[in-house]
Write a structure and sequence with these properties.
204 residues; alpha/beta; Rossmann fold; two-stranded antiparallel ribbon; 6 helices
């Protein structure tokens, strides 16, 4: 089973509360985002949006220029149905992140738990190049990944763990690290996953 088949199967066979990354409300991402005070017409992209409620939260705040990228058509269909008519304010892109060729630039790039599935150096380097291409000169980047105290696998797949220094190293060519913090995520199965979240801004 290739990567796309894997994720199509996950979203075809599991409900949103049967996956470890489920959050009823993405408070951590929302808190970071709202502190930036971006205008309501800012272009925002959510990477690996899947069952995330981050897009819902942005819509509730009045943001209307939103993009959600996910490798799974089943995931996109699920969030479309959940959003109902609000989905009209979201551009949906069905793509592996490594195949994404941005045709416009964004003010904010959000990725909670997609990036750490890239385990090879060439994949990680390509992701950083795509971020560089996709963000404006005022662009901000927010990444959430498993920390070195977190799981080593997710959804049956290997992941790459991160520290503040290893995340800084990935993006330091074009972006300045503005801060990191560690947070425990409680899964629907009452287990704990330790995440590291880091925010970056483009170097002047």
């Amino acid at each position: 089973m290739n990567k796309k088949e894997h994720w199509e199967n996950v979203f075809a066979t599991k409900t949103e509360k049967e996956v470890s990354w489920y959050q009823e409300y993405p408070q951590t991402s929302v808190d970071f985002f709202t502190a930036l005070q971006l205008p309501l017409d800012a272009k925002i992209i959510d990477i690996g949006g899947g069952d995330s409620y981050f897009i819902d939260a942005l819509l509730d705040m009045g943001y209307t220029n939103l993009t959600l990228l996910d490798i799974s058509a089943n995931a996109i269909e699920r969030i479309r149905k959940r959003l109902g008519t609000k989905a009209d304010h979201v551009t949906f892109i069905e793509s592996d992140i490594l195949d994404f060729n941005p045709t416009e630039q964004y003010r904010f790039w959000h990725d909670r738990a997609c990036f750490h599935f890239l385990t090879e150096a060439h994949q990680i380097e390509k992701y950083a190049d795509i971020v560089d291409k996709a963000l404006t000169k005022e662009g901000r980047l927010f990444i959430g990944a498993f920390s070195n105290e977190g799981p080593k696998k997710c959804s049956g797949l290997d992941i790459k763990q991160y520290t503040m220094e290893s995340l800084r190293f990935v993006f330091e060519k074009e972006f300045q690290l503005k801060g990191c913090f560690i947070e425990d995520h409680k899964t629907p199965f009452d287990t704990i996953q330790n995440f590291i979240f880091c925010g970056f801004k483009r170097k002047l």
